[in-house]
Amino acid sequence: MLDLNSTAFTNPITFFLMGIPGLEDLHIWISIPFCSMYIVALMGNILILFIIKTETVLHEPMFYFLSMLAITDLILSTSTLPKMLGVFWFNYHEISFHACLTQMFFIHAFSGVESGLLVAMALDRYVAICNPLRHSSILTNAVVAQVGMVALLRGLVLMTPHPFLVRRWPYCQSTVVSHTYCEHMAVVKLACADISINSLYSLAVIILIVGTDVTCISLSYVQILHTVFNLPSNDTRLKTLSTCGSHVCVILTFYIPALFSFLTHRFSKHIPRHTHILLANMYLLVPPMLNPIIYGVRTRQIRECVLQLFTTKIS
Q1: Domains of the chain (ranges plus CATH)?
Q2: What crossing angle do the helices spanning 61-78 and 273-298 adopt, rounded to 10°?
Q3: Which of 112, 245, 253, 262 is a good FRET partner for 120, with 20 to 30 A between their CA atoms?
């Protein structure tokens, strides 16, 4: 059993990740789908990166953004799953204080990066459909690199205060984190101090990132739909809309679990804690698993390259 009490100190040596409270007896069974999703995410995103790197026909802005998304998904899933499986399989609950802060930073920072990349991909679709003749001149390789760098820096800069704020509080009651990973609010709630600054800053950052990004994506698709419905034929409209299908699916798989997890965590007191934690895990596992599948199935160029790759190896 984990000792819930500890002597007073500012920075503990270790935290203890409880896993999923109330479902400890099911940890082994829960780990099976989690591990399966992680393996699919690793294989799918590495395959996407390999294909985009080796196939020159895919050296276009949309696929450059997709490769950035794949790298982000690999970082997100790898920052949580190995330690989570250690808790589930080996009852290895300990995580050092600084490792906990590092995990917290990577999870929240690269969630912000992923949101920014979805905006960049919406921008690419907007230019490709609404201004196709200038697509290559507007979204040059340099511009794509700059947009990707802005998405990265924004996520890193906005999330950097989180571990520093967590580090300044005293932890004098418990070091047991009721979660499968070092989620920001789950750790901060252990502090014996007024944590309102953490809560307000976290809420402000989420509103800023999600509000700004969802607004930009929505405006892009309003313009896209306006352009599409002015096209002369139904076939052309459907063909043009189909090029956005993969991106729309990826947007939904990212924002719906994230918003649902966020809203239930902050505003619903009647949902059991293990449900909150399962939702938080789905938010970090499902998008990295589904993104390469969605793009592999719905994007003709990637689908053809994958089929060619495996056909060549078999023959």
Answers
A1: 14-313 (1.20.1070.10)
A2: 150
A3: 262
